[in-house]
Amino acid sequence: MKCLVTGGNVKVLGKAVHSLSRIGEELYLEPLEDGLSLRTVNSSRSAYACFLFAPLFFQQYQPAAPGQEAPRCKILMKSFLAAFRSLAMVEKSVEKCCISLNGRSSRLVVQLHCRYGVRKTHNLSFQDCESLQAIFDPALCSHVLRAPARVLGEAVLPFPPALAEVTLGIGCGRRVILRSYQEEEADSSVRAMVTEMSIGEEDFQQLQAQEGAAITFCLKEFRGLLSFAESANLSLSIHFDAPGRPAIFAVKDSLLDGHFVLATMSESDLHSPEPHRLVPPLQAHSSTPHLDDFANDDIDSYMIAMETTVDSEGSRAGPSIPLSPGLRPPCSPGPDSEDNDAEPSTEPGTPPPKKFRSLFFGSILSPAHSPPGPSPVLAEDSEGEG
Amino acid sequence: ENFFSEFQMEGVSAENNAIYLELTSENLSRALKTAQNARALKVKLTNKHFPCLTVSIELLSVSSSSRIVTHDIPVKVIPRKLWKDLQEPTVPDSDVSIYLPVLKTMKSIVEKMRNLSNHLIIEANLSGDLNLKIETELVCVTTHFKDLGNPPLASEDASQDRDPEQMAEVRIDIRKLLQFLAGQQVNPTRAVCNIVSNKLVHFDLLHEDVSLQYFIPA
């Protein structure tokens, strides 16, 4: 694999990596035919982010050496970010950036060609991994908002940087309202300030939502994409549905597109003392979504289960959980608990019960194993870019 | 009241026509920061499950529609029996009263002095001289301001008895002085420093319609 980025695009790439670093600790890098994809997911699986850079974004784009499969790497976010740590420096002195991986090497090489003949080479260790794919389809969301990033940037300005959650909704007169979300404090003596920002419909390029529609999501995670969109001067669109269903934040231009998919609080969360970002799981044997936390899940185990082809060797992956490729262990029939209890304990050595607790990582197994009726939100082609 | 285009207030009762509120200043400061480019600002006392000071700001906007930011700052209404604790302190008449130099200059000097000592001596006389002094084991630094002018003193007797060259001084915590100076963004219309020898310094600032007073004890 070899990708060469030049000029101003290096900074764009760096900015994207910074955005992704706000979400997850690991970066999934995969060169596809459509372009280079950089993805990440947060530890509680409540936020997923991905950028896809089209081949034209690069001066040179070679996803795989001829005759070889394109690599799929999982890199420590901090390591990758180190190459783009100082965006000011990147903008000023980096002329070219080359990301490459040759078949034999066990290192992903990020080489920055800077001014005055200086070359900075980062040799990053990585793990082979399966594709991190989230299944979502903005078109299926009933509400859409779209505005220049600048408008949204100004909209979040009054909120303190430390604020975790914010509620976005449509108010009277079709005004878009952003309000700081505070958990109900048991200790009533310490109350927090509530800030609300109201923007008129005219500031939006698209507003397709009814009055009263509202979602609550993590502002900190959203700021990651917002800062990218502001620096690239793009419009940001927000697709959302009922509370509890994930919201999709997207930016797009001719050379790249970015998606941040964030969990939103469901109705019951909004009244519970401890807001947990829960998303309805896709259950193989049951169509009723259960609220679950998946703090104990290990993403690699999901990755193994989600082979795209049944006969894939899976030999590239080095998972800690031994699992024959293409097979999915039987779902444990026990019902999920409705509240935030600990996961049912698993015996050591066996993979965790394969209830798909994550909204994003729907089953893309061969049809025999897939759930009877895919839930509407997840009914995207498995080829769809996650 | 002239400062506001609209002012409505009803206190506890006709004799005690005041309301005392306690709030976290950081909240108010943050709320007002968003008002930097405001077309209008309204402050109301509201009750949204608990008493709040609602600051409602209409922002300048490029587009035709306005943008409104609302901050609900939780406040505590102070019961009347505690009001006496919050009254302006009665101060003895000052020994010297002098106009202050440009606050920005004073601030940068005090900032530098802060690195050397925790206490600073302000001394002034009725001839328009003001000195800022610090004294440590290793070093003494004094900044002299001359020809500052003195406002007319309230009592004629005092001014006649006192030798105009004689300095009245007070030693104060330099951090408190810096806090006061750091908060001043705009040069006031009038800035007076009143010194009660060895007891207190009182800064009396007047900005158009707003008066600000600061008392720092020795």
Give an account of the 3D structure.
The complex is a heterodimer of chains A (386) and B (218). Chain A is α+β, with helices and mostly antiparallel strands and 386 residues long. Helices cover 16% and strands 28% of the residues of chain A. In chain A, the strands form 2 sheets. In chain A, strands 5-1-7-8-9-6-2-3-4-18-17-16-10-14 form a 14-stranded antiparallel sheet. Chain A has a 4-stranded antiparallel sheet with strand order 13-12-11-15. In chain A, a hairpin with a 6-residue loop joins strand 16 and strand 17 (247-252). In chain A, helix 1 runs antiparallel to helix 5 and helix 4 packs across helix 5. The model of chain A is unreliable at 272-386 (pLDDT under 50). Chain B is α+β, with helices and mostly antiparallel strands and 218 residues long. Chain B folds into 2 domains: 21-85, no CATH class; 96-153 and 164-217, Proliferating Cell Nuclear Antigen. Chain B has 4 helices and 13 strands. Chain B has helices spanning 25-33, 103-114, 156-161, 174-182; strands at residues 21-22, 38-47, 51-59, 67-74, 76-77, 96-99, 119-124, 130-135, 140-145, 168-173, 190-196, 200-207, 210-217. A 4-stranded antiparallel sheet of chain B has the order 6-11-12-13, covered by helices on one side. In chain B, strands 9-8-7-10 form a 4-stranded antiparallel sheet. A 3-stranded antiparallel sheet of chain B has the order 2-3-4, with helices on one face. In chain B, helix 2 (103-114) runs antiparallel to helix 4.
